[in-house]
Specification:
Helix content is 61%, strand content 10%. With 478 residues, the protein is an alpha+beta fold. It has one domain: Outer membrane efflux proteins (OEP), CATH 1.20.1600. Helix 4 runs antiparallel to helix 5, helix 5 packs antiparallel against helix 10 and helix 6 packs parallel to helix 10. The longest helix is centred in the middle third of the chain and has 67 residues. The radius of gyration is 37 Å and the shape is elongated.
Amino acid sequence: MASLHKWGAMVAVVMISAGCTVGPEYETPPMVMPAAYRQADRVAGSTAGDAPWQKVFPDQTLQGLITTALQGNQDLAAAAARVDQFQARARQQEAALYPQIGLGGSSGIQGVGGGPPLAQRGGVGSYGLALQMSWEADLWGRLRRLNESARARFAQQQRLMDAVRVSLIGQVAQTYFVLGGLEEQLKVAQAAISARERALSIAEARKENGAISGLDLQRFVADVASARNQKAAIERGIAQTENLLNLLLGRNPGPVARGKDPLRPPAAGSLPVGLPSELLRRRPDILAAEQGLIAANAEIGAAIANQFPQLTLGASVGLSTPDLLQTVGGLLQIDQYVFDGGARAAEVQLRRAVFREAHAAYTKTVLGAFREVEDALVAFRTFREQMTQLELQAKSLSTAVELAQVRYESGRSGYLEVVNAQQELFAAELALANARAQCAVAYAAVYQAVGGGWELLEPTLKVEAGASRARPAAVLRR
């Protein structure tokens, strides 16, 4: 037992000394950010991304569709599966930090060779049971760096799943609004067809009485055909948009429910976007990119530590019969490469290059996020302006159609003037319905761009990597 105590003391000394972690410590890269968004209505106030999506989208029909999508969307299901995969990998890597303990047993019969079987000659049976342990003393932090990387990769997948969730909520809302716009356009087309069919019936009666020419009658016919053609195109768009929405919901093609007023115009400035600096904590894709940066940084340290000697401790404690002998053994193994052709040095160089790539990906993600917010804001603002002008245009053209009809019926103009006025009104009403839909789509896009639709939940594994911090410049010089 004395030897066992000595071995235990040696292990304690090694564990105390195994506190060195080589490699660069991680620091979030500095970013040059604008002071405010160019297209924001106001700077002050909390970001709309902190609001739950149920509050941002009060339409109960839309809420039901989003809930269905969050439960049945296959992209989100795949992202959740990837989270489970990387969680298992993180646990596997964490296990390498601890001693590996195994239990082994043996049995046999000992005797003198020759003659009848041993059992008949009184052979002696022997049995053994041993408890074995091995542990790599992480002197240079290689295992800790790998564990840090695995935790960061796990956290990265969690944030990527959150990004899929944000995108899914935005896509469902935007597709729903597009569908609502097409429905409104269909109503416009149906109303135009009904009005033109009534005009055609009157024109046919007037043609029989000789009040109009055959040329005027054909213009009535063409006018009806034009509206029907537009209606068919809109119906095609509705069916295809329903198919897309059903795919997002994770179900087969079929009809999709609509609310009473899916294009209810949102209030001006109802989605405050806050400051650009807040985007770094709200956008899950930015957080995911940073976790990738953390993992790449840790892998540099693991590659550096792999150049140093590796120390492995082993021990065994066992009993054997027939004399119940106690066996105690210990092993101290040191591995250090002498020549590897530069493979380990190349691995360090590789990991530094991977880090630089991850740094570029992080920067691009941040810049892309700023652009998406600006694009969504300018779309929201300009489509609201277009709605105002299109409403005025449609009202004026409606009056023009009435005046053209009066002039035609009084014989002061041909029917071509009526046709032109009706076509202009039809186009303006379709454009107004589309602008309403696009304004609602931009409303959803603003919410998505500022990182709305998810909340930061504590991961199952602790994912914070590395407590110490280096200078920001050190990050860029790796």
